[in-house]
Amino acid sequence: MTLAELNSLSRADFTRVVGPVFEHSPWIAEAAWVGRPFGSVAALHATMGALVRGASEAQKLALIRAHPDLVGRAALAGSLTRESTGEQASAGLHNLSPEEVALFQMNNAAYQARFGFPFVICARLNKKEAILAGFAVRLHNSPEQEVEAALAEIFKIAELRLRDLLTT
C-alpha cells in the first residue's frame, strides 16, 4: 500500500490496516488518523510515537503488556500474531534447544516478577544471544528505566512494521 492510499482511508480502514503496527493496541492508529495526510512513513511513525508518549502511564503499561513473552506460552502454542511470529523467527527463536527454551522461560519469569510486564526487545534487530544478554543487563534497571527501554524497543518494532506495510 502506498502512503497516498493509506492517507485516503476511512478511520475504520486506517485503524484496521495500521492497528497491528503497535501490538494489540489499535487505539494508537485510530488516534493517529486525524493527523492525515502524512507526508512520509517517518511522519506517521513520529505521530504515533507522540501519541504513545502523551498517553497515561496505565496506557503505556497496557501497550507494553500487550507484547508476548519471547519464546513464551503463546509462541510455543503457535498463537502469536503473524507479525510477532515472523519477528521472533528472524531472531532465531523458533529453533531453540530445550535448554535454550528453559533459559528464555527462566529469564521471562524473572523479568516479569521484577517489572510486572514482559521483556520487550526488537527481535528483528537482534539474535538470541543478544536478547539473552539484554535480559541480563535490563534486569538491573529501575522500573522507570525499564518502561522507557521497553517503549524505545516498541518504537523500533513499530517503525519496521510500518516500513513493511507501506511502499515508498
Would you give an account of this structure?
With 168 residues, this protein is mainly alpha-helical. The chain folds into two domains: 3-62; 68-153, UraD-like. Helices cover 64% and strands 0% of the residues. It contains ten helices and no strands. Helix 2 crosses helix 3 and helix 4 (41-53) runs antiparallel to helix 10. The longest helix is centred in the last third of the chain and has 23 residues, at 143-165.
Topology-level CATH name of the largest domain: UraD-like
Q: What distance lies between the first and last C-alpha atoms, to the nearest angstrom?
A: 9 Å
- Can you name the CATH architecture of the largest domain? Orthogonal Bundle
Overall geometry: globular
CATH level-1 class of the largest domain? Mainly Alpha
Averaged pLDDT, please? Answer: 95
Mind telling me the C-alpha Rg? Answer: 16 Å
In the predicted model, the low-confidence regions spanning at least 5 consecutive residues are: none
Task: Give the SSE string.
Answer: HHHHHHHHHH
The fourth-level CATH homologous superfamily of the largest domain is Oxo-4-hydroxy-4-carboxy-5-ureidoimidazoline decarboxylase
Helicity, as a percent range:
55-70%
